[in-house]
Amino acid sequence: MVELYWLQGAVPETTKPSPEMPPWKETAVVGKRVPRVDGYDRVSGSAVYPRDILLPDMLHAAILRCPHAHAKVKKIDVSAAEKMPGVRAILTAQSPGADIPWFPRRDKPSTSIFDQHLRCEGDEVAAVAADTLLQAQDALKAIKVQYEELPFVLSVEEALKEGAPVLHEGGNRVAPPAVYERGDLKKGLSEADAVVERTYTTACEIHVPMEVHGSVAKWDGNRLTVWDSTQGVFAVHETVAEALKIPMANVRVIGHYMGGGFGSKLECGKYTIIAALLAKVTARPVKLFLTREETFTMTGNRPPNKMSVRLGAKKDGTLTAIEFLSTGTGGAYPASATTSFMATDLYLCPNVKSSDENVFTNAGRARPFRAPGFPQCAWALEQAMDELAARLGMDPVELRLKNIPKTSQRRGNQPYTSTGLADCLREGAKAFGWNEARARKKPDGPVKKGFGVAASLWGYAGGPPSTVIVKLFSDGSVNLNMGAADIGTGTKTFMSMIVSEELGVPLEKIQIEHADTGTTQYTAPSGGSKTVPSDGPAARAAAWEVKKKLLALAAEEMKLPVEELMLSGAEIVSTKDSTKKLAVKAVKGLERQQVLVGVGTRGPNPEGKIVTPFAVHFAEVEVDERTGEVRVTRLVAAQDSGRPMNRLTYDCQVFGGLVMGIGLARTEERVLDRQTGKMVNANWHDYKIPTALDVPVDQKVVAVDPGDTECNATGAKGIGEPATIATAAAIANAVADAVGVRVVDSPITPIRMSQLFRERQKKG
Ligand code: MOS
User: Fold this and answer.
1) Active site includes 563?
2) What is the pLDDT of residues 270-293, one digit of tens each?
3) Could you give the C-alpha distances from 331 to 3, 100, 155, 379, 412, in angstroms and in order?
4) pTM exceeds 0.85
5) Which residue among 242, 513, 721, 759 is the active-site one?
6) Last residue of a domain, which of 281, 298, 315?
7) If pLDDT is split at 50, 70 and 90, which confidence band does 108 have?
């Protein structure tokens, strides 16, 4: 199977297991609703985002990009541009040091940073650094490029036709289709009392983070500092060092704040390398942030998918066969994702076949996008499950409850440490009022109400390596040192809460040092819903070690056995005689040492078991049969992500996930012009992300906590992506419930609905 590279990184042998920490029982801080520790900084404008960085003598850079969907650079002339006012440096493929392979580490086939073969609109041709941004942008216009335009392909079908234009040596298939099989699909289908079969598609979506992508680069001799809007400073660190062929020790990447990424900022961009090169040749700091339009075309997308699904089941709903065949295109450069994964693992089924195929097309390259492959999979699988339920005359919730797995069938039947899928179905249905809603008679007017459900899992829940350092100072204040970026999800807050839980230190006494490769320790990028389950246990381990050291010092001074002591708020108390106590500040050993340091690492995951979050979403919609307009009027999300660390940011994550799901279901679609191959809606006006008017006020989050004591030392399994996987499918199912027609292609636009109504009318 094709693995998702940013989900890898579980290297247990490089980390030592964290100290023995019993699961929390009652908690004082963890699990409560705590506003973000940096909330005021974020809303007041005092938080400095990478986009805000201003350095003395700083230059501004801009990139010249290919205006064609497919072309070659024949000739490039920068002589006029060089003479433009304020211009300090111009980079092209011919510039010394600019011949850098890309992507240096992970992807084949390799191209170069200013490749002369331009495979999509927006590919990098040249870059300019100037005194001001406008001067840099003016100079771009003065660069004369002679392009040889080439024929292009935009769809999977075109790309695989004989004689199609070829993007990379070796053809337009990224790899042979990745096929997975278990049991005997044919047999499973023949045993079925009902079989449904349908092809579904999802549109290409753009991440559209609030803060555009970019970097500021500054050299001090042979040391490079980069401020980057990134989900993972260590990922950028590694790529920058490798691309520039300098030691990692000479590179420092800082990412204190970032305004949204959703997977598009998990990797180092070419712009970072270009900024560093320009800073080197000009001996000045260089700021290079993309324009909003560039962010639409060149920083990734959720690739479009076509998925053919066949399901077979017995009369009682027992699944006998699942077939899931997916083709998609990650654009002009390699991008990997396994769309079929959830289809083969969410439900108990002995006979399964899946295939994932990815081809090159002349369009912007995909990047991981909040649960890569999974929302698309849910769109197809969960609509098919609804069709199957209808065919069997079964309630959709009941059908799903009939097929709950206890193991990961795709991964050697390894048992889950906890499975909240059934509880999510039951508790979600209760909170939604599912039975009552479905039983209610539909209104007679032109606006029809409908109710839908969709289930999901997310196959991963973090792991090593992650190192966190906690320091307790003699005045009782604490420094929390972590490598993780806070990508807007509240990482700083929940990590502080974990430290506060262990040390009894109030949040306002905890200062945070984070996301800086020069001063913090390695952790994987914040993505894959891994930050809570990977970094949380490391934070707990670090605080635990500090506590152990503190109690050991106190035991000596109190002349009591250390096992008898516990830390309670700002005091160390004997568990046998509560009159025997010592204030933390009065511990002489701490006074003498000034600081106690705890280093915590993330221990390995439980052997032979799988940790994964589950979720079930319920949607209520209104469909206007006169206009084809769909309104989402109510959503309930039942999430099994283990123990919530901060119930407030947990809920916020889910609300954000639901909004993104509404986007997939109803509004979002990258539109490429068939004549030119260019994106025609690369702006916030024409690319429709949901606004407040599209989002229902009535949204409820049900936290299903299975009390998982095995998954890791915090009991948390991760919430970011499970919060968005099932939403769009639940909405599509609700639409089908409302009006009896099913939109199989996302997004569900009024035009598509009207077409279906017309077809229904014709059929009578
Ligand atoms: Mo997410 S796509 O792992 O940021």
Assistant:
1) no
2) 999 999 999 999 999 999 999 999
3) 18, 21, 9, 21, 32
4) yes
5) 721
6) 298
7) low
